[in-house]
Amino acid sequence: MLSLYNTLTRKKELLKPLKKSCVSLYTCGPTVYNFAHIGNLRTYVFEDILKRVLQYNGLKVKHIMNITDVGHLTSDADEGEDKMEKGATREGKTAWDIAKFYTAAFIKDLKLLNILPADKMPRATDHIKEQIALIKILERKGFAYRTSDGMYFDTGKLADYGKLAAQNFKDKKAGARVEVNKEKHMPWDFALWKFSSKGAKRQMEWKSPWGVGFPGWHIECSAMARAYLGQPFDIHCGGIDHITIHHTNEIAQSEAAYDTPLARVWMHGEFVVIGEQEKMAKSVNNFLRLDALMKNGFSPLAYRYLLLGTHYRSPLAFSFSALQAAQNALDALYDAVRDFEKPRIGCAEFEEKFKSAVDDDLNIPKALGVMWNLMKSAYPSHAKAKSLLKFDTVLGLGLARVLGRHFIIPARIRALAQAREKARLARDWEESDSLRMQLENAGYQIEDAPKGYRIKKTHS
Ligand code: AMP
Ligand code: ZN
Fold this sequence. Notes:
The structure is a single chain. By secondary structure, the chain is of the alpha/beta class. It folds into three domains: 3-269, HUPs (Rossmann fold), CATH 3.40.50.620; 273-401, Anticodon-binding domain of a subclass of class I aminoacyl-tRNA synthetases (Four Helix Bundle (Hemerythrin (Met), subunit A)), CATH 1.20.120; 411-457, no CATH class. It contains 15 helices and 17 strands. The strands form six sheets. A four-stranded parallel beta sheet has the order 4-3-11-12, with helices on both faces. It has a four-stranded antiparallel beta sheet with strand order 7-8-9-10. A three-stranded mixed beta sheet has the order 14-13-15. A hairpin with a 4-residue loop joins strand 1 (3-6) and strand 2. Zinc ion binds next to loops. Residues 28, 221, 246 line the site of zinc ion (ZN).
């Protein structure tokens, strides 16, 4: 019985998929004008855990993640430059090249973190037609109005605008937020379509019934989610910053156009913070990439392990010492399972506890605790192996690649290790050291234990 916290209703709810055994999931993807930072990646790991837990419950998942390659402006209030065009100017490339480059870099990061691929990653620029069609419906129903720089959504026409964020916009004084565009009816009205500036040709622009320009940021998700998953669909996710603007506006457009909810469950992952509750943002200097963690000698899965230790609805303060602790724990886990026998029958009591933890709004920190208790238990290794591999379908720590690998250490390495042990017992230190060096050069380490020795691979 899987229960999930729904931001919209502000409570944990039992999941009841619209179709009996298949869940439709839409996760907002990256704006591909720069690399993803480790904060962004936390959101994708949270969504990956969600998907894996759905599958653990025997459900099929139809997962769509969009790629924002146009329309996301530097200010969430629909002002400023388009992030893509800005990135292109910064790097002296075209906006299309920038999109291609950073999409590929993003997919590489997802793979390194063992994140299961979405069924489709549709690009906003490939769905301009669908977005225009949606804006036309909004215009016909009286929810859109024109200003000198674009078509805007008239939030005042919706009685429940802001319900996701539990904000009552009606009572909010106009101008509470710094007002930039005086032509907007309400400060929080948002762009559906922006016009290209007069005399300046944009790299990314399209004809529309309202003039040449480009879609607003939120409209792409409303249009693509409906195109691929239908409306309503089951679960919509993103980081917490999406609650007040992006998802609030997706809901407004989609519900105004079609008089039916966009998604039933809305889930949001908390941020990675650095230092004193400071959020990590691409515009601030504390931008850390997965690549930087790897250059500091950490494995990407150590970062994944670190993320698993904090519940997705709590902020996570990143530090290198916490990452080191995660790396040590992961290495210890790998070391232990390397010597495990082939899996046979699992340990039911631990499997039950694991399942009830993950089913309780993805309580992965608790599930990790169950895993370590299993490791410490007196069950034989073939039983632990069976349960661990099951758990790893949720945790995604790559245990299948390591488990029992002790038994497949190449014969040449075993022979070297044996020769070294012989030399050591004969107190021939020179020979034993030289053999140890040979093993190390081949990527193996010998650990002397009270009852003989153990061969360890230095890189997992
Ligand atoms: P963006 O590429 O800026 O559109 O962001 C991609 C995803 O990362 C969105 O779902 C954001 O909510 C999320 N996000 C942005 N910053 C952070 C952060 N510091 N920690 C966790 N998630 C974040
Ligand atoms: Zn979105």
